Structures are given as C-alpha cells and as structure tokens.
Amino acid sequence: MNTGVISSRYAKALLMLVDKTGGGERAFDQARALLSGAEEGTPQWAPLSGGLCPEISSLVLLMRRKGRSEHLRLTLTHFVRLWCEENDVHLVHLRSAVPSEELEKRVETAVASRFGGKVIMDSRTDPDLIGGFVYDVDDYMLDASVRTQLERIRRQLTSNTERLV
User: Fold this and answer.
1) How does residue 157 score in pLDDT terms, banded at 50, 70 and 90?
2) Backbone angles phi, psi at 63, to 5 degrees
3) Helix crossing, 72-86 with 3-21: angle to 10°?
4) For 7, which of 70, 75, 117, 118 could close a Cys bridge (C-beta 3.0–4.6 Å)?
5) Residue 104: is its pLDDT beyond 70?
6) Does domain 89-164 have CATH number 3.30.1490?
7) What share of the chain is helix, strand, coil (3-state, %, to 5)?
8) Taking phi first (over 0 means left), then psi (-120 to 50 degrees means alpha), and beta for anything else, what does residue 77 get?
C-alpha cells in the first residue's frame, strides 16, 4: 500500500480522536515537538519530558501493533497539517542567518495579514544562508537569502559563458 495513503488515514483517525477527546492542542504541540527532534525516519521521544498525551500514545501503540512504525513521522506531519487547516492556524517556518525578533514580528504580521487566522512561528538560525531569510507557510515560500541570490548570479554567469564559447 502507498505510504502517503497509510499516513493520511492514520492522521485523519488521530484528528477525529482529538476532536472527540478535546486534546487537539496538546496533541498538536507534542506532534510538533516530536517532529522537530526527528531526523529521517522515526520521531525522537526525548523532547517530551511529561510523557505522551493519550491520543498520540494510542496512535504509536496501534502503529507498532500493525507493523507500521516506519510511517509514524509522515503520519504526524499529516496530522499537524490537517489540524492547522481545521483550526485556521498557519505554521510559519522561518530560517534566518542571524536571530532577529524584529524579523519574526514582521513575518508574523505579513502572514497574518495575507492569510488570516492564528500564526505560529517556528524560527531557526541557519548560518549557511550567509544573510537574509527564508520562510514558508502552507504552500507559499519566500526566499530572500544571500545564498540563493549568489547561486542565481552564478547560474547566469555560467550560462552566459557557455553561450560565448
């Protein structure tokens, strides 16, 4: 069976469960914490000192019992996206070369005015950007990094040089 279909079904089931129990916000926060600590593969459980909420705990046990633990990361990613859509929340991933509270506030204001709803900011420092910032929200991405601008110039110079030869 397709990995996306499996993950999507489990995510929808988790969303229905948290809607019934009223534990959606806690499950959303825990899913984000698990995903933020995860590399490729299965999420890391270390970020959660207080233990898992009952809904996510049930999901993990069910997926282990069914032999589908490898789909947990994608399932949690789908759940976070579905929960945000249902609750009119926009999760913004901001990467900047240096930390800047002013930039975070400006991006948050811009996203709120463009998309409406509640904005949750996930901000990280990425020195590889050299300067500037990159943010994405939903299916929208804005890349205003120096690294990207330098790469664009490099491609232009390379293509112009190839035409001359």
Assistant:
1) confident
2) -70, -35
3) 50
4) 75
5) yes
6) no
7) 60, 15, 25
8) alpha
Cα separation, 161 vs 165, whole angstroms: 7
> Which residue is listed with tokens 């999420």?
43
pLDDT digits (tens, 9 = 90+) for 115-127: 999 999 999 999 9
C-alpha 83/C-alpha 15 separation (Å) is: 7
d(CA 9, CA 27): 17
Residue the block writes with tokens 């490099």: 154
How do the domains of the chain map onto residue ranges?
Answer: 3-86, 89-164
Provide the whole-model pTM.
0.80
Residue 75, classed as helix, strand or coil, is: helix
102, two tokens: 């002013």
β-pairing, 118-125 vs 89-96, is parallel
Q: What percent of the chain clears pLDDT 90, i.e. is strictly above it?
A: 78
79 contact partners, CB below 8 Å, separation of at least 6: 11, 14, 15, 27, 28, 31
Would you mind telling me the total number of residues written for the chain in this entry? Answer: 165
Residue whose tokens read 């929340």: 89
The phi and psi torsions of 44 (rounded to 5 degrees) equal: -90, 140
**Distance between CA atoms of 133 and 124, rounded to whole angstroms?**
10
